[in-house]
Every structure is written in C-alpha cells, then in structure tokens.
Amino acid sequence: MKRKTITEIGEITYEIERKRVKNLNLRVRQDGSVHVSVPYYTSYEQADRFVALNCRFVERAREKFAMRSPKKDGAVYFLGEELKLSAVKGEKFSACVGGGELLLTVTDENNVQAGIDRWRKEESEKLFPPLCREEHALFKEAGFDVPLPKICFRKMKSRWGSCTADCGKITLNTMLTEKPLICIRYVIAHELAHFVVQDHSERFYKILNIVMPEHKEIRKMMR
C-alpha cells in the first residue's frame, strides 16, 4: 500500500508493509522509492510521523543514488544529454564535444576515466562561475546580502555541493556537469542560501521559495 505524507523537504510517497517486526524500518531503494515496514499494530499516522522524522535520511539517500546515474558502455552524460564516448591514445590530453560525441585524447590508453574526470573539471571551471554570478544577482535583487563566493571544483561521492560560510566559499561537484543547467543553478542557489541560513530549517526553504520558486520540482529532477 502506498501513502503520502508532508515533510519539511516536501511530500514523500512511500510504500508501507505490515509484518512481524518489532520496530519501524525505512529503506530507500536505488530508484529513489521509499519502503517502510511496520509492526501490525502501527497506525498510519505513526508511519507518517516516522517518515517525516527521517525525511533528511531519505533526501541524502536519494542524492547519493542520483550520483550513480546509469551509464551505458561507451557513453557519458553532459548537461542532461547522452554523448557517445570515443577515446584514443595521444601525446597530449584533449577533449572535444560535437555531433553527440565526446572525443577524448588521453596519454594513457588505460586511463580513460581520469580523462573524463579532467574534462568534467575543465567544463565545471567554464560553466559554474557565470551561473554563480547570475544566481548571486538574484539573491541581491531579493534583498539577501550574500557574498559572491569563491568557487572550488571537486569530484565528490555523496554531495552535489557544500558551503563554507566563514571562508566565503562554496564547493561544487564536477559531476554536476552531467545534469541539465537548471539543476546546476539549483545547487548553486542552495549553497548561496546557506550564507543566510546554515541549516535546513523552514527559514532556509523560505529563502529558496523566494529566489527559486520551482526548487522542489528541480530537486526531483536531481533524482
């Protein structure tokens, strides 16, 4: 049976199963769906509260699975589009995108993944700063006094971005280059909002509602 409950990160749909267990258990599957097993005597209201209490776990798990986006052999993704991957060995690294294809020249034929990672970092360094300036301008227009941050670029395993407010710095995952531009904008806006509110309280999401009203729909795209 499926149920829906409202949490601080938005509505969560989950599958509930009554079984012979002592405790309430929550599991997030690789497709982002949520499964909850409960003792036979547990009410639906109790299950709803349990899911709401664990909504941040659900969010983190979904983000982690989203970073493991399925890849076909010989394919990569760039700004939401699939590219055919071709790699050749050469004396100097290069990367060229065109005609639905990524052509890599790598100095070691066994180091294609390192070449992809280097290409992603180079693209991040070109794409992210102007997008950050645009999102920063929206915060200023909305009346939020946030600094134009220093941006660091790094491949991360479990986060799309992070904010170090004391240092005026945000770090963005180079794997974001897989996602559509609107998703990159969302992550930047999310990190900029942390210069105003450093937790994920109701006030934090009110800020996102102002600068990016569609943020809930975009977050679903990230999954």
Identify the CATH architecture of the largest domain.
Answer: 2-Layer Sandwich
With helices defined by DSSP (H or I, 4 residues minimum), what is the helix count? 6
Topology pattern, helix = H, strand = E: EEEEHHEEEEHEEEHHH
Strand order of the largest sheet: 1-2-4-3
Q: Specify the CATH class of the largest domain.
A: Alpha Beta
Q: Which outline best applies?
A: globular
Molecular structure report:
Helices cover 37% and strands 28% of the residues. The protein is α/β, with parallel strands linked by helices. Strand 3 and strand 4 form a beta hairpin. The chain is globular and about 70 Å long. The two termini are 23 Å apart. The model has no long low-confidence stretch (mean pLDDT 90).
Characteristics:
2 domains, single chain, 223 residues, 11 strands, alpha/beta, 28% strand
Summarize the structure.
With about 220 residues, the chain is of the alpha/beta class. Helix content is about 35%, strand content about 30%. The protein has 2 domains: about 1-65, no CATH class; about 75-220, Zincin-like (2-Layer Sandwich).
